[in-house]
Model the fold of this input.
Amino acid sequence: MLFCDLMGEFQQFEQDFYQTGYYIDEQGHTLAYSYDVNDSTNPAYYDDGTGVLDPSSQQHYSGRLYQPAMPSGTVSDTGTNSPEEEPPLLEELGINFDHIWQKTLTVLNPFKPADGSIMNETDLTGPILFCIALGVTLMMAGKAHFGYVYGISATACIGMYILLSLMSSLSVSYGCVASVLGYCLLPMVALSAFAVFYSLQGVLGTVLVLLVICWCSLSASKIFISTLAMEGQQLLVAYPCALLYGIFALLTIF
Done:
């Protein structure tokens, strides 16, 4: 009696086991299907008088998994783009050597029209380098004034930011003001390097100092009026710039 019950349960398990299976479509994709073993329309149905499915009539699973192709322009599973699509590290840091070179040429030529789209960028790489260069040249002349250079620069940027905010109808950013004033410090760096080899406390030194102050002031005011649309106000902007670069000139002379 127990043996008969076990055989009945085994046959029931065998029938349940063959209720589902796999088949391979025309494209080679493995798909699941279900069927009834007693359905005569089933291609795997085999009636030997017992109503049991013949396993040998099934198509075997090939082991291939269907993996849909990722559409172009989508993000991968990790959430990041491929290494070929990632921007360069310097671009992510906001360092553009081409724009730095264009800004430097604009400062070196006070009569060259400034590109407002480039000069409006908050680029502090060049200004920091020029401030360090000014401090190094002053130190080579026996004047360790790094603190004065950074302190005067920060105070002047705050003052110019407030002044330009009152004068301009466009919005002014503190980073843009610091960037322009820092780039226009380049002629003062050249004057400080000249002071390492030659004293500026004479007629020639006074002429060079006045020339460099005018150079820096005209370059800064030219960039400010082109960036902030302040036509006809260049002299008003050049005056506070001349006061700022005059302080740096005093550090260079004395």
Observations:
- Confidence is low (pLDDT under 50) at residues 28-37, 43-47, 75-80.
- The first helix runs from residue 2 to 17.
- The first strand starts at residue 20 and ends at 24.
